[in-house]
Amino acid sequence: MSASQSPLVQGIxxxxxxxxxxxxxHMITTLGEIPTYILPSPGAVLKTLLEDRGILWFHAQETLFxxxxxxxxxTFVALALSWLAFESLSFEKLLNRTLVVSQxxxxxxxxxxxxxxxxxxxxxxxxxxxxxxxxxITQLTLNGLRNAQLEFGxxxxxxxxxxxxxxxxxxxxxxxxxxxxxxxxxxxxxxxxSVLAELIGSEAGLGVYLSRAQSAYRTDRVMxxxxxxxxxxxxxxxxxxxxxxxxxxxxxxxxx
Amino acid sequence: MIEISRLGLSLGQTPILQNIxxxxxxxxxxxxxxxxGCGKSTLLKGLIGVLPCSEGELKQDNxxxxxxxxxxxxxxxxxxxxxxxxxxxxxxxxxxxxxxAPADEPRxxxxxxxxxxxxxxxxxxxxxxxxxxxxQGMAARISLARTMMLKSKVLVLDEPFAAIDATTRFNLxxxxxxxxxxxxxxxxxxxxxxxxxxxxxxEVVVLxxxxxxxxxxxxxxxxxxxxxxxxxxxxxxxxxxQHIRRALEKK
Lengths: 256, 251
What we know:
The complex is a heterodimer. Chain A is mainly alpha-helical.
């Protein structure tokens, strides 16, 4: 994305791109005479989207609730873990192994267990989000802190700052860009994790809608919910990007 | 007046520095030179207390000497001006200098002093500039002002102009010569550039050997003579440079 383009030009470009994809999609379904249960036309999906907007919004609220609570908790846990790992090398080693193990578990197999233990409410989804999202935030934040220590360690010594003050004044702000990188990854992970857990078993959420649509061969509804998920993911990324740009004014301006 | 005598420093069992002595009268600059790898940086780390010295004594004015073995980073006699400016990119010039304000100094007093230091390094009016808006030379001067903010007796300059392009470096060296003149602090300049040493320093100490000891030392002509822009090209300066280069050769 070049900075020289005005938001209007960018918006028009995106709309043209979107319209092009929809046109192609429409042509494939009509010219290929593909039945609706295999691939519905964009018009049919749009119609379903409008008809089901009430029920979609009801489910989306549940997913958004899980997403926001899960992501907030993950962020706090990740910050605490990266701080502890920064302070203690032995803890870092322990943490690295635990995180690698936790990341090598296929979550599709873990989700049913979580449901069995914690029921059909929001709890198992939030735990799943914690498991998937803590890793990228912790890893990148810790990486940022370590890099900052390498770069500015001499400065901390020159200024005679003790470890806490050096962390507060130098290392933590310097690690902020990396933290936001981790958060951006976590934002999409969290969305996928909660929908995945809902798909396996839940009382409400976009995953529930998705699973019902799938078992009824309502591909128009499947496509509609995919669009909703993509829309929310894009919105969440946009939100984090906005916050990051405000917080990292010094990094943004440097690139201009 | 600060005097370092018989400083020795070992890394593990290997002696790196041995029997190094020099005096630092107020408002003077002593240049320490040596072939690369001889232990200049080690000396500097010993002075600021990052590495423990194994021998030596420090005398301040007429007070009884302090053993350098007990030297550590909490001592505030020596303060380093690091090789690269290390500006924090999210802070402007003034805030970067204020980082070095002592914790017990009132905010307004620190602010006033930081502005004075900016004026001292001829950057008045640049206080709101962020690091990405500063030239290399400006960043080097702000880094210097930041270390001066620490109010230590001796500034330790670690090749502060090494990473700067030749023209800017030349101007900074001239500027530095004027700055030293108005300084109450003394300074130790570690450099690998013989011209920089004879232009800026009142005394040049050349280290060499393993472990490194003082190979040669001499006083340069008075500052009023060195200030003459032509002096550095004179036969006298050339002879001094030659003398240093010979002392830097490995024997």
